[in-house]
Amino acid sequence: MDYFVVKFNVNVPRPELKEAATDVLAAMAGELGFESFENTQDGIDGYVQQSLLDEDALKAMVADFPLPDTHILYKVEPMEQQDWNAAWEAEGFEPIRIGREMVIYDPRSTDDGEQLERGFETAVKIQPRMAFGSGTHETTQMLVEWLTEHRPTGRRVLDCGCGTGILAIAAMRLGASEAWAYDIDEWSVENTKDNAALNGVQLNALQGDASVLKKIDGKFGLVMANINRNILLADLPLFVEKLADGGSLLLSGFYEADIPSLTERAQSLGLAMKEQIAKGDWRALVF
Question: Which of 59, 70, 87, 277 could form a disulfide with 284 if both were Cys (CB 3.0 to 4.6 A apart)?
């Protein structure tokens, strides 16, 4: 799947207003189909599928930006898949420690994985290949931390928009009985399968959007989705259909401003919100 990166330059009248301006910008860009964002020195970079970018809507959003005396400039660039892959392969990521319960690491960039693992109850090895979800992003960390605190022992789990498969794999390493995962991107599905094998766990990975859930029999005690707000809102009914009575639904990939719309949608489908989690600018909800 081909993506654009849109580099937004955010100019505000006072430095203390920049965080609020970038939060508003990300929320508005999310309405246009942008899937994820990365803070930069000048503002934020936004990532959107090339087929979904509406340049007229993007121009209108910038022209009508609601914060006074705030000016947004942007540049659209295609993402080079080969370069992205090469960067991940070359650099890897530093080990991520979650208390004493879990360590997530890339064995390619860790000198002695066995020594590292000795200090933790559970270890997860991840080799990202053009797929989101090494564990470095706050949204992923919030859900993995929740998993370590509320172990899914004996539960059947579902990872929606799996990326590298990190959530499904972590759940299996923490005692889940069975895991299914899906992603719209072929390379994510293959990366998930590779990482499952690397960790010695069995899981089922499918390619497609949420419609693939119709191919999976039965319900799940735990459903996890770390995706952008618009996709979460659209797919919530399908998530609820697969959620067992008394099960938990974990959502992340959005900002504080997105919570009311997600909560309203979830409650209309019969869910009760149990917990809010914050890490940096990002939020997670547990229903």
Answer: 277
| Residue labelled with tokens 């010695």 | 200
Looking at residue 70, its pLDDT comes to 95
The residue from 79, 104, 136 where one domain ends is: 79
Same domain flag for 122 and 261: yes
**φ, ψ for residue 59, nearest 5 deg:** -60, -40
Calculate mean pLDDT across residues 235-260.
Answer: 95
Long-range residue pairs from 55-63, CB within 8 A, at least 24 positions apart, any chain = 57/32, 58/6, 58/29, 58/32, 61/28, 61/29, 61/32
User: How does residue 84 score in pLDDT terms, banded at 50, 70 and 90?
Assistant: very low
Mean pLDDT of the chain: 91
172 within 8 A of 122, measured Cβ to Cβ: no
Residue 204: give the domain boundaries.
Answer: 92-286
Tokens of 274: 């149990």
**Cα separation, 203 vs 179, whole angstroms:** 5
Q: Model-level pTM? A: 0.77
Same domain (yes/no): 254, 112: yes
Is 122 in contact with 102 (CB distance < 8 Å)? yes
On whether both 70 and 101 belong to a single domain, the answer is no
Candidate from 54-63, 73-82, 216-225, 275-284 with smallest mean pLDDT: 73-82
- Other C-beta atoms closer than 10 Å to the C-beta of 152 total 22
**Per-residue confidence at 1, pLDDT binned at 50, 70, 90?**
low
* Residue linked to tokens 């999976």: 216
pLDDT at 66 over 50: yes
Give ∠ CA 199-202-229 in degrees, rounded to 5: 85
Q: Please list, in sequence order, all residues whose beta carbon lies within 8 angstroms of the beta carbon of residue 7, skipping any fewer than 6 positions away.
A: 40, 42, 43, 45, 74, 75, 77
Look at strands 282-286 and 243-255 and give their pairing.
antiparallel
